Description:
The chain is an all-alpha fold. It has one domain: Methane Monooxygenase Hydroxylase, Chain G, domain 1 (Up-down Bundle), CATH 1.20.58.220. The chain is built from 7 helices and no strands. It is elongated. It starts with a helix and ends with a helix. Belongs to the UPF0111 family. InterPro entries: PhoU-like_sf, Put_Phosphate_transp_reg, UPF0111_domain.
Amino acid sequence: MLGWFRKLLPREDRFFDLFERHSRTVVGGAEALEQLLQGRDIDLWCQKIIDLEDEADHITAEVLLAVRRSFITPFDRGDIKDLIQSMDDAIDMMHKTVKTVKLFERKEFDPLMQEMGGVIVAAAKLVAEAIPLLNKVATHTVRLNAIAEEVMRVESRADDLHEQGLKDLFRKHGSSDPMAYMIGSEIYGQLEKVVDRFEDVANEISGIVIENV
């Protein structure tokens, strides 16, 4: 009943512009992370992620302010806050990875780390595709559900890479270089958490679809 009533009222569509802007920072951060993991121009790509994370924080603040000020929102206020926060958590996790890389002055990355970079880009692009479709949830229900399922498959691939990466690290450094194992496992763990945050975004999108169709 409430959903039907909300459809009759004017909406604050600025939210969708902010969501799309944020999704672009997330894709940009993912692409920069993928480049960083190639081991070239590391300082450049680290700074790119830092700058995009700062931009994303400002957009998140705009969304939260708009939630407080808007009389009518396109969907539930709690869902709006949870969606933007889950997106922001993804780029925040990329920033944490940058901090680890800089702290330990890491210059080279395992092939499976590089592959995880590609997985992160794939997840980010799926989210960026989904965000504009939320403007007309009922029209795009099938595709939104399909995107959520694709993100789950991507996350499963990241889990496999993370597990195999840790095994390879242990074989290579487990007894001979514990510090190298510790640093490598930390980076693998953070990369996996980036993808986990995209899974959180997909779950938020699925919840919005369920509540608004």
